[in-house]
Design brief:
Largest sheet: 7 strands, antiparallel
CATH superfamily of the largest domain: P-loop containing nucleotide triphosphate hydrolases
Helix content: 10-25%
Strand order of the largest sheet: 21-20-14-11-12-13-22
Number of domains: 2
CATH topology of the largest domain: Rossmann fold
CATH class of the largest domain: Alpha Beta
Distance between the termini: 43 Å
Radius of gyration: 25 Å
Number of helices: 9
Oligomer: single chain
Length: 378
């Protein structure tokens, strides 16, 4: 995608991971993960704790070495390359700022490491680098600091900053390197809810300016759905689906994705396909046709249900008023059923409602999504 407003001098590059495998002892952590991040693309790696997403990030950064597979950055195989030779910038959950340096000095660290020799960086020989080098580093720091709102804070130290300000400094320090690949590992988890919303907007804007391939690791669905161009959903060391957010939400490719994405998650109901392909739910025809036969799982989002004159009768066990909606806890076909209704709907425990649904997905016995041949009114 074009990024016309990227920082001057920034370069873009793609990231390719091919069949990445990694284990610790006898425990496999990554089981053949492959994905491609296009130049200027923002890909979120989303999954629960322990699914291998941070290990994948560390392999891209060069902190870990894969047991098998290949990492390519900007067309160059860097699988065994030293981290410093990859030109990858990484932002950690813990900020990792130097407490004794000012904001400006923290942002300048990667520029100093890249542009000055070891002698010039020595504490007592710092005057050996030229005024031109000083001005160049200061100009780059100022250029990055201004759009992030850090200009008034350049002379402060990290201890004098809020959590959100520190996170912006960590982002600026990564961006100033003009990296080929931008890596972010749970960067917002230490911030409160309101600050997370504001900071994720800033991160997206930074990505647009940088134009680099960006890989963003998170367990937060809201971050992935609102920020990413595509989402890579991982569980148990496997990449289950890589697709745009709307595709992940509306058409999960695997029943594990359906059960993970969404708050509340998708309803997963036992169903069956008759000999003629009609999908039956609780003994009633759904109007969905499939080539599969026998037991299936029907996935329906809570907001896809609506009150109807004819349909499925469900008994309300509990209701939750959420402000913008009412969440009704019911059951159908022996499974829990969640309905997301208009906020004006007041249903008391024990009350029976008749509902129908507007859209659904089918999953086979292997958990993979099935095609729907046709839809007709039941």
């Amino acid at each position: 995608m074009p990024r016309p407003d990227r920082f001057e001098g920034m370069q873009v590059a793609g990231l390719i991971l091919e069949d990445i495998r990694k284990g610790f002892g006898s425990t496999p952590v990554l089981k053949g993960v492959s994905l491609r991040v296009e130049p200027g693309e923002f890909v979120a790696v989303l999954g629960p704790s322990g699914c291998g997403k941070s290990t994948l990030m560390r392999i891209v950064a060069g902190i870990e070495t894969p047991d098998a597979g290949r990492v390519t950055i900007q067309g160059r195989d860097v699988t065994r390359a030293h981290p410093g030779a990859r030109d990858v910038a990484m932002v950690f959950q813990s900020y990792a700022l130097y407490p004794h340096l000012t904001v400006a000095e923290n942002i300048a660290v990667p520029l100093t490491m890249r542009r000055l020799s070891a002698i010039q960086r020595a504490p007592f020989l710092g005057g050996l680098f030229s005024a031109e080098q000083r001005r160049g580093i200061a100009a780059d720091v100022a250029r990055i600091a201004e759009p992030l709102g850090l200009t008034p804070l350049l002379h402060r130290r990290p201890g004098q900053l809020s959590g959100g300000q520190r996170q912006r400094v960590a982002l600026a320090r990564a961006v100033v390197r003009a990296p080929h690949v931008f890596l972010l590992d749970e960067p917002l988890s230490n911030l409160d809810a309101a600050l997370r919303v504001a900071t994720r907007r800033e991160i997206v804007e930074i990505h647009r300016r940088v134009g680099a391939a960006t890989l963003y690791v998170t367990h937060d669905q809201a971050e992935a759905l609102t920020m990413a161009d595509r989402i890579a959903v991982m569980q148990g060391g496997e990449l289950l689906q890589l697709a745009p957010p709307a595709e992940i939400y509306d058409n999960p490719a695997d029943i594990r994705v359906a059960g993970f994405i969404g708050s509340p998650r998708m309803n997963l109901l036992p169903a069956e396909a008759r000999d003629d392909g009609m999908v039956m739910l609780a003994g009633r025809a759904t109007g969905l046709l499939t080539r599969a036969r026998g037991p299936l799982t029907l996935g329906i989002r809570p907001e896809a249900f609506f009150p109807a004159a004819t349909g499925w009768a469900v008994r309300v066990a509990h209701s939750e008023y959420l402000g913008e909606a009412t969440l009704l806890h019911t059951s159908l076909a022996g499974a829990e059923l969640l309905l997301r209704a208009e906020p004006g709907l007041r249903a008391t425990p024990g009350e029976t409602l008749v509902v129908d649904f507007a859209r659904a997905v089918l999953f086979g016995a292997d958990g993979r999504r099935l095609g729907i041949e046709a839809a007709q009114h039941a």
